[in-house]
Specification:
The protein has helices spanning 34-40, 62-74, 89-99, 123-137, and strands at residues 5-12, 17-20, 25-28, 46-55, 79-83, 106-110, 141-146, 149-151, 156-159, 164-167. By secondary structure, the chain is α/β, with parallel strands linked by helices. The strands form three sheets. Strands 4-1-5-6-7-8 form a six-stranded mixed sheet, with helices on both faces. The chain has a two-stranded antiparallel ribbon with strand order 2-3. Strands 9-10 form a two-stranded antiparallel ribbon. The longest helix has 15 residues, at 123-137.
Amino acid sequence: MADNSIHFILTGGTIDSHYDGTKDTVVPNEHSVIPEFINSLRLYTKNEFTEVCMKDSREITQNDRNEILKAVEESPCQKIIITHGTYTIPDTARFLKANLKRNDQVIILTGSLIPIKGFSPSDGTLNLGYAISQAEILEGGVYVCMNCKTFNPEEVLKIISEGSFASIFNK
């Protein structure tokens, strides 16, 4: 693939969920809505999509993380955006950083606290746009991009009570 390609690896999470009134919560869609959303933006990039799983991140298993790692390592793209649930996004970022054999790719994990389809406004659209822009300027490595802030895997943590992310170094 050309340098202007972005490979989106989709794993579910709130960003790719819908509200289920019978459960009084959001649940991951059966299939991702991210390709439809990204393609509607008319980006100047060629986009590739791989759906690894569609899960709440609290249900992501080691096997799922291995499949995410495999999808990243087999990707011909230099820019990869992984959509992921926010509860365990730091865990997957650290796993990828520790286990990747390649170091030439920009790998960004992002998600949202509000689904992108059926809810307005959603932080998911902002987070996807920010991740796309960061993929253009970051050096090879693994990052978490949430709410217009870029974190390294070693520093990022989710503050559940605030619905936000922060650095353990208070940057």
